[in-house]
């Protein structure tokens, strides 16, 4: 649970500021024109150039915008990368990664996968002749066994969805390097406050900024960050050519959200752990899937790799039918019945009928997305209020 970068450095060392300091200062340097401590939002779509055929730093806002650049600087710093890109949504960010591939290429993805990523890979990427195999990312041997000569990308989630499985990123990146394959990780549930996949040898880290990075359910966004500059150039080329960039207002909202990311995620994770423990002893609850519980299959790995908490998503299974489970999800008062996650207000949903409805029915059954499953996104309300709300809903 330590954050090694929080250790104060001597005056002589250049400031490797801690995560929470960088979240506030990197990309938010004082505006030289006015001294404003919050940089202005640049809405311009185009920029006057010094001469014909001579280009200034910015020329057109799809290619670059000062507000987006500032956000990307913050993101690159928080992810321990050298470059980052901000997209119109998380899906646009994942799509950009898949566009590194072409006809005949093969992707290995985790079977505990966000519903929208499942749909993108199976119903859109297949149209360009890209094949997908889903495997249990918590089993590195299964990942290696799924590699074919056509495999170009391994795609995992730092904390899977909805079963909250935890892959061993070091093992997966080592396998991928041996085979010359890119690795990409969706760190939406993990957040850079808890884990930074680039530090574990992963090539590309992705976020739905709609969730914890923004943190207030008021904007959509997606991000990619990398450590390798030529990979950054390839991704930037695709983003600029296809155009799914994040608008300046949303860039501002994500930048503002990042300033409190670590505080929110640590606090929400602490409440989530209390809720998971409480659910575990509830007679109507069959199982609780939470990386912070010793009963979680990758609890030891989670303890080693997640810093400062185990995340604020809690999945549990009721001993109940699909209808009874739906009724519980409909009976909470504080937990809003809604997809999405990662914001200050708590949400509840039923994966089988909501977040994972875009899975084929057989894949839902195969990957443990059962009728009695409920997924919680634990917000910043008090534990007692959230517990009482669940108590009255579960009965
Ligand atoms: C929400 C989400 C996405 C997609 O992001 P959007 O911003 O909704 O496009 C991808 N992965 C995970 C884990 C998510 O929760």
Automatic annotation (TrEMBL):
It comes from the Bacteria. Keywords: Pyridoxal phosphate, Transferase. Belongs to the trans-sulfuration enzymes family. Gene3D superfamilies: Aspartate Aminotransferase, domain 1 (3.90.1150.10), Type I PLP-dependent aspartate aminotransferase-like (Major domain) (3.40.640.10). One of its GO terms (cellular component) is cytoplasm. InterPro entries: Cys/Met-Metab_PyrdxlP-dep_enz (IPR000277), Cys_met_metab_PP (IPR054542), PyrdxlP-dep_Trfase (IPR015424), PyrdxlP-dep_Trfase_major (IPR015421), PyrdxlP-dep_Trfase_small (IPR015422). The lineage of its organism: Bacteria, Pseudomonadati, Planctomycetota, Planctomycetia, Pirellulales. Its cofactor is pyridoxal 5'-phosphate. GO terms for biological process: cysteine biosynthetic process via cystathionine; methionine biosynthetic process; transsulfuration. Pfam families: Cys_Met_Meta_PP (PF01053). The keyword Transmembrane does not apply. The modification N6-(pyridoxal phosphate)lysine is found at residue 211. This is PLP-dependent transferase. The keyword Cell division does not apply. It comes from Roseiconus nitratireducens.
């Amino acid at each position: 649970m330590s954050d090694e970068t929080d250790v104060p450095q001597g005056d002589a060392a250049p400031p490797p500021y801690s995560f929470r300091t960088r979240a506030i200062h990197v990309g938010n340097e004082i505006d030289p024109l006015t001294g404003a401590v919050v940089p202005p939002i640049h809405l311009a779509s185009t920029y006057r150039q010094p001469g014909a055929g001579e280009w200034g730093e910015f020329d057109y806002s799809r290619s670059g915008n000062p507000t987006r650049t500032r956000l990307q600087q913050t993101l690159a710093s928080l992810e321990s990368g050298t470059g980052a890109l901000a997209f119109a949504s998380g899906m646009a960010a994942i799509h950009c990664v898949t566009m590194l591939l072409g006809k005949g290429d093969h992707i290995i993805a985790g079977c505990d996968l966000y519903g929208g990523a499942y749909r993108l890979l199976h119903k859109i990427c297949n149209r360009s002749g890209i094949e997908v195999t889903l495997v249990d990312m918590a089993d590195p041997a299964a990942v290696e066994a799924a590699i074919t000569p056509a495999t170009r990308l391994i795609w995992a989630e730092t904390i899977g969805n909805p079963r909250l499985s935890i892959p061993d990123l070091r093992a997966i990146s080592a396998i991928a390097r041996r085979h010359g394959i890119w690795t990409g990780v969706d760190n939406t549930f993990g957040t850079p406050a808890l884990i930074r996949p680039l530090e574990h040898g992963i090539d590309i880290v992705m976020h739905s900024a709609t969730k914890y990075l923004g943190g207030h359910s008021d904007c959509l966004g997606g991000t990619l960050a990398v450590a390798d500059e030529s990979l950054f150039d390839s991704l930037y080329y695709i983003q600029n050519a296809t155009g799914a960039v994040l608008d300046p207002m949303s860039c501002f909202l994500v930048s503002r959200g990042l300033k409190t990311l670590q505080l929110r995620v640590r606090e929400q994770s602490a409440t989530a752990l209390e809720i998971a423990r409480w659910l575990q002893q509830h007679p109507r609850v069959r199982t609780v899937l939470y990386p912070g519980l010793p009963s979680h299959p990758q609890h030891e790995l989670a303890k080693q790799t997640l810093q400062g908490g185990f995340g604020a998503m809690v999945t549990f299974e009721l001993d109940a039918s699909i209808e009874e489970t739906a009724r519980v999800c409909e009976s909470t008062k504080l937990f809003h019945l809604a997809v999405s996650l990662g914001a200050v207000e708590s949400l509840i949903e039923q994966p089988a009928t909501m977040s994972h409805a875009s899975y084929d029915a057989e894949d839902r059954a195969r990957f443990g997305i059962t009728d009695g499953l409920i997924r919680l996104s634990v917000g910043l309300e008090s534990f007692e209020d959230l517990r009482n709300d669940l108590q009255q809903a579960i009965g």
